[in-house]
Amino acid sequence: MSGRKILVVVGVAVALATCGLLYAQQRQGGGTLTTQDYIEIQQLYATYAQAYDRGETAKYVGTFTADGEFWGGYAASGGGRVSRLPYKGTKELTEMGSDGGRGSRHWTSNLTITPTPEGANGSVYLIVYDTKSVPPKMEETAIYDDTLVKTPQGWRFKKRMRWLDADEQSPYNANRKK
Q: Is the pLDDT confidence value at 125 over 90?
């Protein structure tokens, strides 16, 4: 078989596998998502991370609904960081987002999207790097569990929960006592 025929066969196999995966994901949650929805949700995740890291507060806040919630944030207290649950609505999210652009890089991977009757649930692994350190150092690892809705402005986070891996309350903490 020629190289060109092999490429065609591989391309068709990848396309069929992708269609099967998208169909299976659509059937799990009771809702349906289009290929365009998956692309737009992936872009939402990228916009969130880059806007926060670049200090683009309005753009960061714009990834949430007006009544959106972020669970797992921090507030400064006496020189340290103290857990602050939750940040709700545009005003509080703006307050939290104004801390962005401080030399961090949010690296996310392994995005999963599950359709629901109301929109979708998303989950992604998170590593945050402190780029002010030389060399950059890993600051935290976590998992985001998200509730997503489609608005007239596009897909938005309705609720975002950050589960820090080191947090004893996290269901994903490998050392958590059961």
A: yes
Per DSSP, the three-state class of 99 is coil
Burial profile 156-165: b = 16 or more Cβ within 10 angstroms, e = fewer: bbbbbbbbbb
* Calculated CA dihedral for residues 109, 96, 65, 34, nearest 10 degrees: -10
- The CATH number for 31-164, chosen from 3.30.110.10, 3.40.50.300, 3.40.50.740, 3.10.450.50, is 3.10.450.50
* Measured distance CA(151)–CA(159) in Å, rounded: 14
CA distances (Å), origin 42, targets 12, 74, 102, 146 = 23, 25, 24, 13
**What's this model's pTM, rounded to 2 decimal places?**
0.76
Which sign does the torsion angle of CA 96, 100, 102, 108 carry? positive
Helix, strand or coil, per DSSP, at residue 162: strand
Once rounded to an integer, what is the mean pLDDT over residues 54-82? 79
Q: Classify residue 53 by burial, with Cβ atoms within 10 Å: 0-12, 13-18, 19+.
A: buried
